[in-house]
Design a protein that fits this description.
globular; alpha/beta; 16 helices; 23% strand; Aminopeptidase; two-stranded antiparallel ribbon; 17-stranded mixed sheet; Glucose Oxidase, domain 1
Length: 549
């Protein structure tokens, strides 16, 4: 009997594999790494001024992307027959007249913007004065599914909440995903939750090991103008910021609190909010302006009579940090790896699919999204206003930051295992001779930090593709040496194009991406989340809404 069952399982597995759609070989063979190189070189050139949100360089990049879509024959997927999907934002830039200080038992400590604190006014007011008591709230998380509540019903209205970045330390995968960060650990959640509770402000205590990036990244990412989607009725913080670790230690010590002891206490469900003998006094002067940003969207229509109204979405963000005025030396954040590389791959995949003689059954949507560095704003708007209803989107694949070291032997696809598409991903990785890296912790919460998350939040199965640390013909030690030579370029002006880069790997990633998306576009059923996943309910809701139309 067991032998019969085994034979039947084998037969059904072979039959299922045989039903997997074939991707046209001619389309994959036409991928050209030199085209990707050309796109990356132009998009990261000084002429585009770092593609800063709300800056001239981002508008030039958007025009370039739309022009390429048009030349390759994609249909416009934006507003009113155009490639641009425009959305309104508010730009907020702190002015030099702003001050922030903390008053405590040992006197008043003036905080220096950039060195001690990075903070701004999210209320979108041009002038705010704040004089508020400080409450330490651990991690600032309430998560009923983990029986966790840092607030314990405390009255937080009008107060500044001091909290740790990240979430409780754990190796139990059933408790805040163990070593992998959940959305509760992201700064976006912490700001949102504090605002919902009526807090006036938040100061996140930065720890490099917990944030997964150093203070220099916090400083470069948040010291300039920052943006929010215009409109909406969500409460906003008067003060939203980060506090440098050693500054936090000194302020806590001044009021008789030991930092390490507080950190230990914050790991317990029994933690209680602590009213500190501290007051934050801030005078925030902001330049506020209305800005129109644009996602750039092109569509290759589907060929299947029953599936052409559904789609697969490819995305890559085209913005970076722009020019930091007043900064000495090189002040252009070119963003070559982050994310001219993803845009180069996106454009080449779009060209290959659009020019293929054979088309997939579902439509292919190619979206270069804006304002990712500002908190995934462009993809958030696109996910809320997609060209195809969310319930009819089979899969969203995102491409963000590839180092052109050659052909990778390892591929990352964090979050893919949460979808029913994972077996197809595994098989496709084998076809490309990629080792699929699996089961690795995600302490930095990468799944919640890139544009695919915006689609997942609306229920669309989504993940990003990334490289591992071993490249064909080289050892992991070789890769480490290359990284050492590059230095710390993340969110720095040194993230620039290099002539010696090898784009063969990005070409292979483009082939891999086309293959994955094509299979998702041609398979009979939509991709779904695994049962019980945190996004399953949103998926079911979006599909029910589509059926009701």
């Amino acid at each position: 009997m067991r032998r019969t069952i085994a034979i039947l399982v084998c037969v059904f597995s072979i039959a299922a594999f045989a039903q997997q759609p074939a991707v046209p070989a001619a389309a994959l063979q036409s991928v050209d790494g030199q085209r990707i190189r050309a796109h990356v070189k132009f998009l990261s050139s000084d002429l585009l001024e770092g593609r800063g949100t709300g800056q001239r360089g981002a508008d030039l990049a958007a025009e370039y992307l739309a022009t390429i879509f048009a030349l390759e024959g994609l249909q416009p997927g934006g507003d009113n027959g155009a490639y641009f999907q425009k959305f309104p934002m508010v730009g907020i830039a702190g002015e030099p007249a702003s001050t922030i200080a903390v008053e405590g038992p040992s006197g008043t400590t003036a905080l220096k913007f950039g060195d001690d604190v990075v903070a701004g006014d999210n209320s979108q007011a041009t002038l705010s004065d704040l004089d508020a008591p400080v409450v330490f709230v651990g991690y600032g998380i309430t998560a009923p599914e983990y029986k966790w509540d840092d607030f314990k019903g405390a009255d937080l209205k009008g107060k500044v909440l001091l909290m740790f970045v990240n979430e409780p330390v754990s190796e139990d995968e059933k408790f805040f995903n163990g070593k992998s960060l959940t959305y509760y650990g992201r700064w976006t959640y912490k700001y949102e939750e504090a605002a919902r509770r009526g807090a006036a402000g938040v100061l996140l205590i930065h720890k490099t090991d917990m944030a997964s990036y150093g203070w220099d990244v916090v400083k470069s990412s948040w010291s300039g103008e920052h943006f929010a989607l215009a409109g909406g009725h969500q409460p906003r913080l008067k003060l939203a910021g980060w506090l440098q670790l050693e500054v936090a230690r000194k302020l806590l010590a001044a009021c008789g609190k030991d930092f390490d002891a507080l950190f230990k206490d914050a790991q317990s469900r029994d933690f209680q909010p602590i009213a500190l003998p501290l007051r934050v006094k801030a005078h925030l002067v902001s330049k506020v302006r209305q800005v129109a940003a644009s996602n750039v969207v092109g569509i290759v229509p589907g060929a299947g009579p029953k599936l052409k109204d559904q789609a697969v979405i490819y995305s890559a963000h085209y913005d970076h940090l722009g020019i930091h005025a007043g900064m000495s030396g090189d002040n252009i954040y070119n963003g070559a790896v982050d994310n001219a590389t993803g845009c180069g791959v996106l454009l080449e995949m779009a060209r290959v699919v659009a020019r293929s003689a054979v088309k997939p059954r579902r439509a292919m949507v190619f979206a270069a999204v804006a304002a990712e560095e500002q908190g995934l704003l462009g993809s958030e708007f696109l996910a809320q206003h997609p060209p195809v209803p969310a319930g009819a989107i089979a899969l969203a694949l995102n491409f963000d930051s590839f180092v052109p070291y050659g052909i990778p032997e390892q591929i990352r696809a964090g979050g893919a295992q949460r979808t029913t598409f994972y077996p197809v991903l595994e098989q496709t990785a084998r076809e490309f001779h990629f080792e699929l890296m699996r089961g690795r912790p995600d302490p930095g919460g990468g799944y919640y930090r890139s544009d695919h998350f915006s689609f997942a939040h609306t229920g669309v199965p989504a993940f990003s593709l990334g490289q591992g640390s071993i490249f064909r013909g080289h050892t992991e030690e070789w890769t480490k040496e290359q990284d050492k030579q590059r230095g710390n370029t993340y969110h720095q002006p040194s993230d620039e194009f290099r002539q010696d880069w090898d784009f063969s790997g990005l070409a292979e990633l483009a082939r891999f991406g086309v293959s994955l998306g094509w299979k998702a576009a041609d398979q009979p059923q939509l991709v779904e989340w695994q049962k019980g996943d945190e996004f399953e309910a949103a998926r079911l809701k979006s599909q029910a809404a589509g059926q009701g139309k």
